[in-house]
């Protein structure tokens, strides 16, 4: 598996990614980090979103 291009710490299990934004980005995708996994990679650009260890986890499934 390839290394992520960038790791971004987040404090919520719900994140969205649109690449670098604007014309150089990709379609916005909404991602859910499973707390037991602790991270998720964007399927378009490969950015890794890492859940901060002190983050609050959301029980709700919506964004």
Architecture overview:
It is a single chain. The protein is an all-beta fold and about 60 residues long. It is built from no helices and five strands. It has a single domain, classed as Sandwich (HSP40/DNAj peptide-binding domain), CATH 2.60.260. Helix content is about 0%, strand content about 30%. The C terminus is likely disordered.
Short characterization:
The chain has 63 residues and is mostly beta strands. The chain has no helices and 5 strands.
- Name the CATH architecture: Sandwich
Count of DSSP E strands? 5
Largest sheet strand order: 1-5-4
Q: Estimate the mean pLDDT confidence.
A: 84
Number of helices: 0
Instruction: Tell me the distance between the termini.
Output: 29 Å
CATH class: Mainly Beta
Topology summary:
Elements: E1 7-10, E2 14-17, E3 29-32, E4 39-41, E5 48-51
Parallel strand pairs: 1-5
Antiparallel strand pairs: 2-3, 4-5
């Amino acid at each position: 598996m390839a290394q992520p291009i960038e790791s971004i710490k987040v404090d919520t299990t719900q994140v969205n990614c649109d690449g670098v934004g604007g014309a150089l980005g990709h379609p916005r995708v909404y991602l859910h980090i499973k707390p037991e996994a602790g991270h998720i990679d964007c399927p378009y650009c490969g950015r890794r979103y890492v859940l901060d260890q002190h983050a609050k986890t959301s029980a709700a499934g919506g964004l």
